[in-house]
Amino acid sequence: MSARTDYHINLFYSVEDGGYVADVPDLKSCSAFGGTPEVALREVLVAKMAWLATAKKHKKPVPKPRYRPAIYALAH
User: Residue 65 carries which DSSP code?
Assistant: First the structure.
């Protein structure tokens, strides 16, 4: 999926947690933790797929990708 059709992922270092946090702003409470950025990203991709599968299984609405940081607006 391209950046325009997939969910945005935030990735940042958390001093409080002592590691990296990745989250998907469009999917409520979809986040993951890792000791490295790569692990956090890999784990949030697993969490995203689980979030979407669970929503589908329970016939819950799945939001369209909407969140875009300002940098996306500058690229167009």
Answer: P
pLDDT digits (tens, 9 = 90+) for 45-67: 999 999 999 999 999 999 999 88
Pick from 72, 51, 73: nearest CA to 62: 51
CA proximity to 62, closest of 75, 50, 45, 44 = 50
Q: Which residues make Cβ contacts (< 8 Å) with residue 63, sequence separation at least 6? A: 26, 27
d(CA 9, CA 67): 9
pLDDT in tens, 16-32: 999 999 999 999 999 99
Contact 60, 52 (CB under 8 A): no
Q: Which domains does the chain have, with CATH numbers?
A: 10-74 (3.30.160.250)
| Residue the block writes with tokens 């956090």 | 40
